[in-house]
Amino acid sequence: MQKEYTCTVCPMGCTLIVTYEGDEIIDVTGYECNKGTDYATKEHTSPERMLTTTVRVEGGELPLVPVRTTDPIPKGVMLYCMEALAKVEVAAPVKEGDTIVSDILGTGVNIIATRSVGKPG
Description:
Layout: E1 2-6, E2 15-21, E3 24-29, H1 35-45, E4 48-49, E5 52-58, E6 64-69, E7 73-74, H2 78-85, E8 89-91, E9 99-101, E10 111-113
Parallel strand pairs: 5-8
Antiparallel strand pairs: 1-2, 2-3, 4-7, 5-6, 6-10, 9-10
């Protein structure tokens, strides 16, 4: 069987074709650089993404603070992390780099603020 992926490692955007049988990858084709094979293998076996979103701020000069994961998380838990973060509210002030949620949903990955949000005035 074959599955197609678009590589996002560099601006080339190569169309990668992964040929596989069951859980075993037989071949990867379509890459222009040596990073394509690694990307296709990882994307096929355990896709991960960085999560970026916002969290509500209580008493802040802004109503929301942008946040992101410190490392990629499994693509399959992204929606669950978003649902968990929708329930989170932090108190101002928030400093860029502050940990908002530790070990979100047992992934071993933290959610951190990517901007500072102070109190009004």
